[in-house]
Amino acid sequence: MVLLLSGCAQTSSYPETRSLAANHRLIAIIPPKVEHRGIKRTKATAGHENQERASLQFHQLMYSWMLKEKTENRVFVDVQRVNDTNQRLEAAGYFDGEALTPAQICDILGVDAILVANFTSNKTMTDTESLVTGMVLRGIGPFNRGTQNNKMALTLELFDKGTQDTIWTYTHKLSGDARTTPAMLVNKLMKSAKNKMPYYYPKGSPKK
Q1: Cα 206 to Cα 4: distance, rounded to the nearest angstrom
Q2: In principle, which of 24, 27, 58, 159 could form an S-S bond with 32, CB 3.0–4.6 Å?
Q3: Which residues contact 98 (CB under 8 A, 6 or more apart)?
Q4: Which tens digit of pLDDT belongs to each residue from 51-93?
Q5: Which residue(s) pair with 10 in the sheet?
């Protein structure tokens, strides 16, 4: 396995990762796992609902990003539509806690590989506290952001159906404040990961 470090980002893969990925025709993005840590001032049910809502949002944003890259001929693999993925997973009991291996999920979805994402946030203060603190420290103004109260650990894993193994992993750490949106996080993550993701055409190579 090859391990590469770049700032707050880390990539691990196997020497044959790109050759394996080159044989993939269709992949699916699994609904991301979203976990909030740190501030615990909401009811458990509300926290669970927030995480489910965030997972759906991250899922759609990641799909939209990959679809855009495919449409603009930057990646060579097709990505299964979010609705198709979720409907098949729901029918298999995935959302009800059915224990499924990554290989089984690939079979259920009819794909060559699955992209699994995990988003973990650690808040040091509430969003309101972050904004107020930012105003106090920087002065009140329309362009002042709050302090960076939210640290995010983002992980992408690519599971290959043929080898039944994870062939590529990418991790990245980001900091944000009360105004950091899921779209901003996904955009930052995918822009950072795209040059290392095995589905992108190598620079200088002819695109089909």
Answers
A1: 26
A2: 58
A3: 92
A4: 788 889 989 999 999 999 999 999 999 999 999 999 999 999 9
A5: 5, 171
Listed in sequence order, the DSSP H helices in 22-110 are 44-71, 82-91, 102-109
Q: Cβ-count burial of 47 within 10 angstroms (0-12 exposed, 13-18 middle, 19+ buried)?
A: middle
Query: Which of 92 and 35 is assigned the larger pLDDT?
Result: 92
pLDDT in the model for residue 184: 80
- Residue 153: predicted pLDDT: 83
> Which tokens hold the place of 160?
């290959």
Orientation of helix 82-91 relative to helix 102-109, angle to 10°: 110
CATH of the domain at 86: 3.40.50
Domain count within the chain: 1
Domain presence at residue 176: no
- Does residue 125 form part of some domain? yes
